[in-house]
Amino acid sequence: MNNLIILPIIIPLIFGMFMVIFRRRIILHRALSILGLAGTISVAAMLITQIQSKGIQSLNIGGWAAPYGVTMVADMLAALLLITTSVVALFVLIYAFKSIGRDKEEHYFYPLFLFLISGVNGSFLTGDVFNLFVCFEVMLISSYALISLGGEKGQLRESIKYVLVNIIASFLFLIAIAYLYAVTGTLNMAHLSVRVAEVGQDGLMTAVAILFLLVFSLKAGLFLFFWLPGSYGSPPTAVAAIFAALLTKVGIYAIYRFFTLVFYHEPQVTHLIIGIMSAVTMVLGAIGAIAYMDIKKILTYNVVVGVGFILAGLASFTAEGMTGSIYYLIHDMVIKALIFLIGGVIIAIAGTSKLKDMSGLIQTHPYLGWMYFIAALSIAGIPPLSGFIGKVYITQGTFASEYYWLGAIGLFTSLMVLFSVMKIFMNSFWGETILSEEMEKGTTKGVMLPIVALVMLTIALGLGAEGLHDYVQIAVEGLMNPSLYIEAVLGGNGQ
Amino acid sequence: METLMSILVGVFFAIGTYLILTKSLLRIILGTSIISHGVHLLILTMGGLKTGGPPLLGLDSLSFTDALPQALILTAIVINFATTALFLVLSYRSYKLLGTDDTSQMRGNEDE
Amino acid sequence: MKEPNDIILRGVTKVAVVIIFTFAINLFFSGHHNPGGGFIGGLGFAAALTLLFLSYDVESVKANFPVDFKVVTSIGVLIAVFTGLGGVFFNEPFLTQAFQYFDLPIFGKTELATAVLFDIGVAFAVIGTAMTIILTISEDR
């Protein structure tokens, strides 16, 4: 029993609810939201040290013993994602202070933002399939509100699509839960793992597994990403950045949890499907990123490529692949938030997202330009930045499990990603300066702090990859060896 | 009984899918709520349909139903209630702003 | 526009709302051992309020009942979460409940449970959410 685990979920919830009571006090909102996220960061840090010294932590809510009640579990993967989430969210929040606008702030932007974080944290920490659904819904309902906040024409149109797709995905999730419950008679993840291992993963079970894969692919944007470019392109920059950094990652985390803990018995079927899906995702995403000449579209297609690449590590189902995936997952959360923020600033300055209509920004904004350059190199995985180490390990993993085609596609799409982000750099920063400082539609004032901080973070993650290695190893060990998780949750009983 | 329920669930899904594929936003919302009923029935059926007492009788009762699917359905209904309400408000606002509830006319050009 | 003649609706509403309120509170308290509880009690309460809003107009109800329902929701959630946190201070898991029998002056031997506090929070949250949704749709025309 460890009550710390519940705090990352309820701290944002409590702070958000306080803000709803004091609607007009925007300064209070800002202070409370920073305080809330700082609280989650410190709790996550405490969790990491505890997991390192004492193993996986669990909490049976209300004192109901493990397979019967709802269990919250914090393993190293969850804790690492937790701290990354909070840090990234904090910087995006600081960016939002200047950019989001008074009107949206009064329409509960900060409470919704914190509820979103609460749902994301809950999804990472839960040890129960149905509770995972509930946390997903908390996250999604906040995201529905955030994506339609402001209510412009294009935004409403895209939000209707987004909401509809996610409602259908939620139904599929419930259907999958119903089948799973019918076959196994339990919804506790550790208990599920035990039950599935006992009866073996037969055809029926694999079918259920693929239904779950379908659900989470819709959320993560793995292959089924048709809804993603539109809906991530329409909301304000801060919202798009947090969506790109977090929402798809929750789906990825769920796929990881399910296919390492529960459905790991038939990797030649399920993991091969994941591999094929991730290969197709990478190729299609990279084509999209190259084809468009619009900053928003290029960046959203880069999100898609990232999703495919992370899951290539899972498809390899080797320790190297997993290590790479975790490194890359952390890197991707940071870098996607960063590149969306910078993209947002460029669009704000130029007043358009079309690359053809902008050039020569390096004259007036040299720092922004070089920050973007670093971010672009990092996204493509150039050493010593943070994307490199993940890319190496994932490629190694795919080669070790003899999925040479998967590794090759991963490396090839990295080149295409580099091309697509450099296209933005060359078109917007190089060339003749057509925009004098007076003509600019927006400024960089007040928004550089989070960008600089995130750039520092990506450099630090790249240079300090060695320091992170111990933690990542613990996470990988937990993923490759489900008995650790089961032992932590069920203890002696239920075996 | 389970077979009958499965057929009913199938009918619900069919109607819901048909409605979602129509153009009118209101029909789409109705379609999602009909599918949600189908899903809830499916969870109930998958938990096993037993004619037994309520689940909180004490240790001496011999036959009782599984309480978990019912708890799941209650939670799912609440969540679905919230989502449907939000979806309704959203569609109403876009109807006001775009002047149509026909999804094929809603499609605008990229430059807006 | 002619003033609608809804004297019967208004007359019935005045009586019915009180009955529904009472029934909602009854449902709420029976929830501890019997069917009922915070969720359904809160919905009953919200139904009565909706009836009020229907038979009188939004403005006059708001003038007599000046409550922001979003605040009601958040207070409800806060009550529920903080009751859950109560267990944490006694080094029990989150959401642990406790109950004890007391001899109260009028009621006699009564069971007092912390779960009721949680349920009050749930009821507030449900009332607030339901009313917020209904008012959001009905406000503009």
UniProtKB/TrEMBL annotation, chain A:
InterPro entries: CPA3_Na-H_Antiporter_D, NADH_UbQ_OxRdtase, ND/Mrp_TM. Coiled coil: none annotated. It is found in: Cell membrane; Membrane. Belongs to the CPA3 antiporters (TC 2.A.63) subunit D family. Keywords: Antiport, Cell membrane, Membrane, Transmembrane, Transmembrane helix, Transport. It is a multi-pass membrane protein. This is Multicomponent Na+:H+ antiporter subunit D. It comes from the Bacteria. The chain crosses the membrane at residues 6-22, 34-52, 72-96, 108-124, 130-150, 162-183, 203-226, 238-259, 271-292, 299-319, 325-349, 370-391, 403-426, 447-465. Residues 127-416 form the NADH:quinone oxidoreductase/Mrp antiporter transmembrane domain.
From TrEMBL, chain B:
It comes from the Bacteria. It is found in: Cell membrane. Keywords: Cell membrane, Membrane, Transmembrane, Transmembrane helix. The chain crosses the membrane at residues 6-21, 28-47, 67-90. It is a multi-pass membrane protein. Pfam families: Oxidored_q2 (PF00420). Belongs to the CPA3 antiporters (TC 2.A.63) subunit C family. PANTHER family: ANTIPORTER SUBUNIT MNHC2-RELATED. NCBIfam families: PRK08600.1, PRK12660.1. This is Multicomponent Na+:H+ antiporter subunit C. It comes from Cytobacillus purgationiresistens.
TrEMBL record, chain C:
It is found in: Cell membrane. The chain crosses the membrane at residues 7-29, 35-55, 67-90, 112-137. The keyword Cell membrane applies. Residues 8-132 form the Na+/H+ antiporter MnhB subunit-related protein domain. The keyword Coiled coil does not apply. InterPro entries: CPA3_antiporter_subunitB (IPR050622), MnhB (IPR007182). It is a multi-pass membrane protein. It comes from the Bacteria. Keywords: Cell membrane, Membrane, Transmembrane, Transmembrane helix. Pfam families: MnhB. Belongs to the CPA3 antiporters (TC 2.A.63) subunit B family. This is Multicomponent Na+:H+ antiporter subunit B. It comes from Cytobacillus purgationiresistens. The lineage of its organism: Bacteria, Bacillati, Bacillota, Bacilli, Bacillales.
